[in-house]
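User: You have something folded?
Assistant:
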Amino acid sequence: MRKAAVLLAPCVLVCLLLSFSQAARQGQDIKCGACRALVDEMDWDISQIDPKRMIQTGSFRINPDGSQSIREIPLARSEGNLLELMESVCERMGDYGERTDSATHRKSYIRIKSRSGEPLDLSEATLDSRVTSSLKFACETIVEQYEDEVIEFFAHENENIKDKLCSKRTDLCDHALTSSHDEL
């Protein structure tokens, strides 16, 4: 009996380590997917605003020389507009489903509801309310923890925001630089 326990203990330990490793990877996949979905949703929201609409920013105080330090910036990328967009972006995480890569077994998240009404190919998507609630929670956590970074990137960057924000700045997608995530 004692020999069986000695032999069984390492097996149990290995199984526990593997399950913890898989749970950690799944948590990373959710955070990465939420970040990438957040960037896609913010990009789409910004694209829906007329680029010609401007907003005045700066100080309304008069300088000693009689001038004011006011400048006009596009409304779509203004801090106030970005904050407003961030308030509701995580609500749309329910529009995403989970997809498992057959080669790597990594999870990614794809949009399951079309913005234009066109039918989407959902053959590889798994629809699960637990997944969407986890994705929404991860999105809310990202918005709360990285609010300044999200605003900074959307106010000043136009190229590769997903990789710059989700992989390089926040390390939420440390594996993403070597895998393709164009489906979002």
Remarks:
- The helical segments are 2-47, 79-88, 129-145, 147-156, 161-169.
- Residues 4 and 10 are 11 Å apart (CA to CA).
- Residues 2-47 form the longest helix (46 residues).
